[in-house]
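Now for one specimen:
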Amino acid sequence: GVRIRDILQMSSGARWREDYSDGESDIFRLGQLLATGGDVAAFPATLVREHAPGTFNRYNSADTLVLGLLVEKATGKRLARYTHEKLWAPLGATAPAFWLTDDAGTAPAYAGFNATGRDYARIGELYRNGGRANGKQIIPANWVRASITADAPHLRPGERANADSAFGYGYQWWLPGGGADSDFAAIGVYNQFVYVNPARRITIVKLSANSFYGTSNDESAGREGETIAFFRALARAM
C-alpha cells in the first residue's frame, strides 16, 4: 500500500529510528547487517507500519534502500551499472565512483556511494540547471522540479507535528526553508553536503567526518542547521 512517491519523500509510514547514538536503533541494525555480510535486500520486510503512508515525514534509510531495489527490479541492472549509464557517463564525471555492496552484490543505495568532491558538485549543478548538463537534458525538467518541491503539508519546512525534522523534504532532497532563495541540499552522515542555491547560482560540496556526529540525536552533534546557515552566508557573500 506504499506508493513509490511516498518512499521518495521519506513518508513510507514505517516505524523507524535513525539514531546513530543508539546501538539498538534500526539504522544500527541495518549497518551491522551490511558490515557482517548479511542480505540487506531482506531487511525492509522486517519493518512494521506506524503511520499511514504519505502522511508523516520521517527520515528512513530503509526507504532509500527500497528505492535502489526498485530500480534494480525495474531495469534488470545493478544499481551501479544503471547509475553509470544514465547519470555518471552523461554527466561527464571525471573520476570513477563506486558503491559499497553486501556479499550478494546489492548496493544499499542509502549509503556507501563514493565519489570525488568535484563530481558530487556536478550532481548539484545538474539539479541547479534543471536537469541539464553538457548541453543535454539528462534528467527530465519536470522530475527535477518535483524533486525539490514540498507538495504536501507533512513535507513543508517548519516545525510540524507530522514530521521529525524542521527541514522540508522533496524526492530525496532536503528543503531547509526559512530563506529567500529556495535552496535545497543532499545531507549525508558525518556532515557531508551537496548544497544548491539556484537563486545565487551556487553549488557547495562539503566532505567531512565530524567526530561528534551521532553522539546525540540533536543539532549539537549534527550541526546541520548551523551548516546550512553558513552556506547561505557564503552564497550571499559570493
